[in-house]
Amino acid sequence: MKSQTRCPITGDSIDKKYCVDYNDRRIYFCCPECPPKFLQDPEKYIKQMNAEGVELERAPAAKESEL
């Protein structure tokens, strides 16, 4: 597994200031236009990233709830 380095929408490099927490995972994007596109069909993009061997970060809220 590898860390996320590419935007699931465009394939461009991620900018960590653009992100969405989904199902206890944090997904990063390249720009502010991509998160709304992701949220239209998040499972599609999650499956795509899983198939590429991308391991998504745990969302901060998910980390805290494990303590």
Please provide a written account of the structure.
- The structure is a single chain.
- By secondary structure, the chain is of the alpha+beta class.
- The chain has one domain (2-65).
- It contains three helices and five strands; from the N terminus they run E-E-E-H-H-E-E-H.
- It has helices at 34-40, 42-51, 60-65; strands at residues 2-3, 15-22, 25-29, 54-55, 57-58.
- The N and C termini lie far apart (25 Å).
- The model has no long low-confidence stretch (mean pLDDT 93).
List keywords for this structure.
single chain; 67 residues; alpha+beta; three-stranded antiparallel beta sheet; two-stranded parallel ribbon; 3 helices; 5 strands
Report on the biggest sheet: 3 strands, antiparallel
What is the 3D shape? Answer: globular
**Helical proportion?**
25-40%
| Spatial extent as radius of gyration | 11 Å
Mean pLDDT: 93
**Number of domains in the coordinates?**
1
Enumerate how many helices there are, as a single number: 3
Spatial strand sequence of the major β-sheet: 2-3-5
Extended strand count: 5
List the secondary-structure elements in sequence, H or E: EEEHHEEH
Distance between the termini: 25 Å
Identify low-pLDDT runs: none
Q: Give the quaternary arrangement of the chains.
A: single chain
Structural class determined from secondary elements: alpha+beta
Beta-strand percentage range: 25-35%
Topology readout:
Blueprint lengths: L1 E2 L11 E8 L2 E5 L4 H7 L1 H10 L2 E2 L1 E2 L1 H6 L2
Parallel strand pairs: 1-4
Antiparallel strand pairs: 2-3, 3-5
